[in-house]
Inverse folding.
């Protein structure tokens, strides 16, 4: 059968899986138990299970509402729609949000209503990428959803709060699909290697090739299976029994980044990344950032290293670098990849090009060293807490001078313990903002009589 031949459909209208269909189609889960990474939606009694599984014998099924499935590409939205149609025995109808018009929507709804009235047959209407429907097209769905002439399963990668009209959203259950974790993608690939619907054990997959494949696929199951199929074809054409790293590289023309998140390359690259920012080589820093991004490093890990570099290596020479780094770390957690790469790059550029000072870092370490060496001493009496009864009798707070009552807002009195009066921990550099701090600190210490 030709690969591009129409697949046809079964009696319920669900598209049939032909022998020459892409691997991602052939490996589409046939039951809810095969669905990976969406356990939170598949618990007993959940709306999806009630849509898919028949009611227990002797009990009437309470039909759940229509649902809107929201999630990233390759997380199983289309699969769940097909399972709803297969498992429930309802008729399945699919509309393309790209090509269908209002007339098509009304035609499907009218047909579903007629079937429901004449034979009691229920219809599942699946609309992929529903956010592409205009407001008028979405309005046309409202009567059928409200009266349950159809069970609507709408899928979208866009936030439904902005892309689906409020009346339709209020009449549906919003179910959020989570991005697949690496373990889920690996499990899916392993299943495709051995399952008769997939490669049927004809080829094995090297560990390095599997690592590269999973990194390239990200959290997209469809992409992972597409890459696996292309690599399998490359291996077979070369007469090989195993899918190797070279097979994957030949198939998709993307070289593997030699980077092991648990090995030497991980530590070497992150070390070079940090030292490049510290050394103000912005281009080298961006190169190492790119290597980590392409290799699939956790962007939150990268963001944390940038925050540390901003505090340790830039410090008070440019205090705004830490603000940028912290904002980047928060934004990365909020946005995720691939857009997070832009946020990370902005923070890297700021930290790498900022004036550098480790004076604050050295200062706190010097103070910690003194404390650990036992140089602590009692807190001067005039600085002790005087807010409790009897404190004054112990001399606590007596003689304390309120700084805001003094010229320049600085009160000349002893602050450090007796043993540390002469200690000088913070020694600002002449770089960036610390030039101003240096002159100000000299004046402060004069006013304090130090």
């Amino acid at each position: 059968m030709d690969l591009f031949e129409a697949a046809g459909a079964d009696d319920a209208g669900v598209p049939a899986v032909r022998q020459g269909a892409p691997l991602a189609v052939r490996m589409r889960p046939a039951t809810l138990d095969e669905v990976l990474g969406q356990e939170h939606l598949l618990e007993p009694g959940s709306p999806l299970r009630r849509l898919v599984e028949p009611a227990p014998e002797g009990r009437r099924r309470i039909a759940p509402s229509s649902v809107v499935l929201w999630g990233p590409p390759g997380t199983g939205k289309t699969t769940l729609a097909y399972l709803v149609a297969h498992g429930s025995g309802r008729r399945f109808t699919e509309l393309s949000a790209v090509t269908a018009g209002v007339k098509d929507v009304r035609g499907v709804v009218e047909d579903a209503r007629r079937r429901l009235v004449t034979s009691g047959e229920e219809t599942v209407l699946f609309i992929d990428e529903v956010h592409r429907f205009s407001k008028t097209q979405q309005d046309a769905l409202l009567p059928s959803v409200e009266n349950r002439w159809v069970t609507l399963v709408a899928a979208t990668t866009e936030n439904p709060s902005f892309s689906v009209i409020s009346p339709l959203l209020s009449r549906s259950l919003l179910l959020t699909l989570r991005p697949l974790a690496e373990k889920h993608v690996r499990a899916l690939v392993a299943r495709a290697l051995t399952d008769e619907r997939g490669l049927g054990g004809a080829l094995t997959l090297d560990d390095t090739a599997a690592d590269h494949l999973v990194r390239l696929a990200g959290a997209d199951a469809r992409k992972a299976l597409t890459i696996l199929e292309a690599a399998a074809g490359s291996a077979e054409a070369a007469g090989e029994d195993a899918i190797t790293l070279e097979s994957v590289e030949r198939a998709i023309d993307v070289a593997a980044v030699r980077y092991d998140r648990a090995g030497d390359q991980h530590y070497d690259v992150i070390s070079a990344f940090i030292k490049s920012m510290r050394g103000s080589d912005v281009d080298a820093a961006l190169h190492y950032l790119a290597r980590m991004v392409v290799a699939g490093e956790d962007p939150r890990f990268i963001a944390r290293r940038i925050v540390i570099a901003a505090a340790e290596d830039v410090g008070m020479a440019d205090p705004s670098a830490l603000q940028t780094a912290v904002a980047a770390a928060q934004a990365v957690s909020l946005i995720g990849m691939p857009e997070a790469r832009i946020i990370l790059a902005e923070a890297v550029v700021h930290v790498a090009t900022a004036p550098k000072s480790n004076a604050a870092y050295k200062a706190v370490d010097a103070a910690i060293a003194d404390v650990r060496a036992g140089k602590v001493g009692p807190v001067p009496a005039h600085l002790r807490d005087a807010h409790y009864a009897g404190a004054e009798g112990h001399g606590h707070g007596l003689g304390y001078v309120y700084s805001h009552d003094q010229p320049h807002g600085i009160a000349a009195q002893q602050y450090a313990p007796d043993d540390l009066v002469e200690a000088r921990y913070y020694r600002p550099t002449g770089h960036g903002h610390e030039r101003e701090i240096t002159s100000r600190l000299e004046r402060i210490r004069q006013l304090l009589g130090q």
The first strand starts at residue 66 and ends at 70. The mean pLDDT is 85. Strands lie at 66-70, 91-96, 123-128, 151-156, 172-176, 204-205, 242-243.
